[in-house]
TrEMBL record:
Residue span, HTH lysR-type domain: 3-60
GO molecular function per UniProt: DNA binding; DNA-binding transcription factor activity
Protein family according to the UniProt entry: Belongs to the LysR transcriptional regulatory family.
Entry GO terms, CC: protein-DNA complex
UniProt-listed Gene3D superfamilies: Periplasmic binding protein-like II, Winged helix-like DNA-binding domain superfamily/Winged helix DNA-binding domain
Keyword Transcription regulation attributed: yes
PANTHER family: HCA OPERON TRANSCRIPTIONAL ACTIVATOR HCAR (PTHR30346:SF0), TRANSCRIPTIONAL DUAL REGULATOR HCAR-RELATED (PTHR30346)
Name of this chain's protein: LysR family transcriptional regulator
Amino acid sequence: MAVEIRELECFLVLAEELHFGRTAERLYLSQSRVSQLLQSLERRIGGPLFERTSRRVALTPLGQNFLTSLRPAYAALERVVTNAREFATQVKGRLQIGFQGTATDEILAAVSVFQSQNPNCLIGTCELPLNDPFGGLRRGAVDAAVVLLPVAEDDLVLGPVFSRQPQTLTVSTRHPLAGRESLDIEDLADAVLIAVSEPAPGYWRQAQAPTQTPSGALIHRGPEVATLQEGLSLIAADRGGMLLCRPTAENNRRADIVNIPLTGVPDSALGLVWRRGEDTPALQAFAVHLKGA
């Protein structure tokens, strides 16, 4: 006859308390239900486990022997259930994260912490083209993407925003503005900015290479590029400048270009983006790590 887990729990608690009232309180049962469970267990075993009088409750020799054998077995069963529960709730599978340009320290730190805390989920990263921040997501090539803001896509969700950084104007050493220690956006009137090509949406391309200053002065749109390295090459060839966040500018220093601090423009920022309705446990866990990186 199969043994009921509740009967074993009742026996173990009663063996500790040696009191039906306290046992009932611990198990959130009535005293009569505790007696029923114990009697059922004793019938299964074939002998009394406790001596019960009006004054005391004590284990019988059979009960003591049963307790000695049951305790380690029950503890092992609890560990099996706990391990199974942890495994079931643990993040598992594969998570692919896309990024534009360079994987920042925040991204790499979040990837490292995520992998160490979620060994059953393999996380990978891949570079996305500068001119196609959302295409990899929509094709299913990545599960989430770290992209430059702004993001205004109906089918995508913008998660944590991080790495807010001041912007610079990056130009060749021969550019008329190259000798300046700092610039305001109004100083870019009649300047040429290298633009990002399609398929990036228009509002996003405009944010990376504005076509006018806040006062309405014209900023000329120069050649279009698909990658950051293409842009840096055109900058070095004196075909125009680019707005880059300070860390990106510093990580791509060259002898033939200079980075000039720029005011009057919003700080650059990165955001984690994923497909609407597809925020899996793995993705939620990574978003938490990225937010705290």
